[in-house]
Amino acid sequence: MTDTRTGPVGLEQMICFDLYAANHAFGRVYQPLLEPLGLTYPQYLVMIQLWAEAPLRVGEIGQRLGLGSNTLTPLLKRLEAAGYVTRRRDTDDERRVSVDLTEAGRKLHATADHIPGCVARATGMTMAELRALQAQLRRLSAELLHP
Q1: Taking each helix axis from N to C terminus, what angle separates 41-52 and 69-81, rounded to the nearest 10 degrees?
Q2: What percent of the chain has pLDDT over 90?
Q3: Which domains does the chain have, with CATH numbers?
Q4: C-beta atoms surrounding 47 within 10 Å
Q5: Rg of the chain over all Cα atoms, to the nearest angstrom
Q6: Which pLDDT score, from 0 to 100, does residue 91 have?
Q7: Residue 58 near residue 73 (C-beta atoms within 8 A)
Q8: What count of other Cβ atoms lies within 10 Å of the Cβ of residue 14?
Q9: Helix or strand or coil: residue 14?
């Protein structure tokens, strides 16, 4: 989307606003699905990473989710207080903290298993359309982060 005009640009010409609005809409879909689990969306993303591959170091989680330690540390503390994860310092390097699932955290996966399907249906798009959109968004992110 290249616009070489000068002067003010309306929201309808700003792809960043469309992405912002879509993100907000996704939040409205996820909120009632995550509320019964006691999770926020960022906490859910951490849990997805851990369900796929636990344990993980805090740095690995942050890198995969694009979250800094100032955001991730309090989030992990809340997940630990909820009984879903444990955090342990590496005995060889105390700067490294490993995060693992508790039994309650593992069981939560089965409870949350329906969420991706609910969200996919809420989009009104086919799986092929969603995959194509996802590929475009990943390309966009890569271009913006590494021009």
Answers
A1: 80
A2: 80
A3: 40-110 (1.10.10.10)
A4: 22
A5: 18
A6: 79
A7: yes
A8: 13
A9: coil
Running DSSP on this structure, what letter comes out for residue 137? H
How far apart are the C-alpha atoms of 48 and 60, rounded to whole Å? 13
Q: Return the number of other C-beta atoms located less than 10 Å from residue 101's C-beta.
A: 20
Distance between CA atoms of residues 119 and 116, nearest Å: 5
Task: Please identify which residue in the block is written with the tokens 């968004």.
Answer: 137
pLDDT computed for residue 5 by the predictor: 59
The pLDDT value given to residue 134: 97
What residues in the chain have per-residue pLDDT under 70?
1-8
Non-local (6+) Cβ contacts of 72 within 8 A are 46, 58, 61, 62, 65
Q: How far is CA 78 from the centre of its chain?
A: 16
What DSSP element (H or E) covers 88?
Answer: strand 85-89
